[in-house]
Amino acid sequence: MVAPKRCLISRAEIARRVTELAERIGRDYAGRDLVMVGVLKGVFIFMADLVRALPFSVEVDFVRLCSYGAGTTTSGEVRITKDVEMSLQGRDVLIVEDIVDTGLSMAFLKHHLASHQPRSLKICCLIDKKERREIEVPLDYVGFPVEKGFLVGYGLDCGEQSRTLPEIYVVDKD
Ligand code: PRP
């Protein structure tokens, strides 16, 4: 049975916030050599909207991480199942992520990408969810701070379901 859910962030709110983020990023990186590195799979919708809202074109690359625990939990071990394919050395790199939850994925990825010796390395995430944070990672651009809840939609899934919903929902797990 599909768990009941309620809309937390509407399409219009997402669109407005993505435009604001793109304007800030556009100002901050004007005239720079920006590469955006997206974290698959959840980021694919956010990143597609974000890059198209920027005032200039950027290069994009992707990583895929695996953190143990399917479904709604994680055991804390993170590894890379798909690495970046372009050289990041000396470039301005912005990691783009759909959600930061425990922070373990971002802490791991930031450390990993730093070893590629970029000129700068920052993080943009759509949702900064505080409830289960284990490692504090500075988030440079945040779409929506969210206190708690299991979220789906706009790229976020629950067991691969609900990713393609255009809004963000909180799933009622009980
Ligand atoms: C989600 C999300 C982040 C990560 C955040 O990915 O997209 O990459 O978890 O969790 P953390 O802060 O607790 O490390 P997920 O593993 O669900 O994969 P997916 O993006 O392919 O759905």
Notes on the structure:
The structure is a single chain. By secondary structure, the protein is an alpha/beta fold. Helix content is 22%, strand content 33%. It has helices spanning 11-28, 44-53, 104-114; strands at 5-9, 34-40, 59-67, 78-82, 92-100, 120-129, 141-146, 150-152, 168-171. The protein contains three helices and nine strands. The protein is globular, with a radius of gyration of 16 Å. Strand 2 (34-40), helix 2 (44-53) and strand 3 (59-67) form a beta-alpha-beta unit. The strands form two sheets. Strands 4-3-2-5-6-7 form a six-stranded mixed sheet. The two termini are 12 Å apart. Bound molecules: 1-O-pyrophosphono-5-O-phosphono-alpha-D-ribofuranose.
Strand count, sense and barrel status of the largest sheet are: 6 strands, mixed
Please report which band the strand proportion falls in: under 5%, 5-15%, 15-25%, 25-35%, 35-45% or over 45%. 25-35%
Q: What are the low-pLDDT stretches, counting only 5+ consecutive residues below 50?
A: none
CA-based gyration radius = 16 Å
Number of helices: 3
Structural class: alpha/beta
- Could you tell me which ligands this complex binds, including any ions or cofactors? 1-O-pyrophosphono-5-O-phosphono-alpha-D-ribofuranose
Helix content: 10-25%
Distance between the termini: 12 Å
From N to C, what is the helix and strand string?
Answer: EHEHEEEHEEEE
Shape: globular
What is the residue-mean pLDDT, rounded to a whole number?
94
Write down how many β-strands occur, each being a DSSP E stretch of 2 or more residues: 9
Q: How do the strands of the widest beta sheet line up side by side?
A: 4-3-2-5-6-7
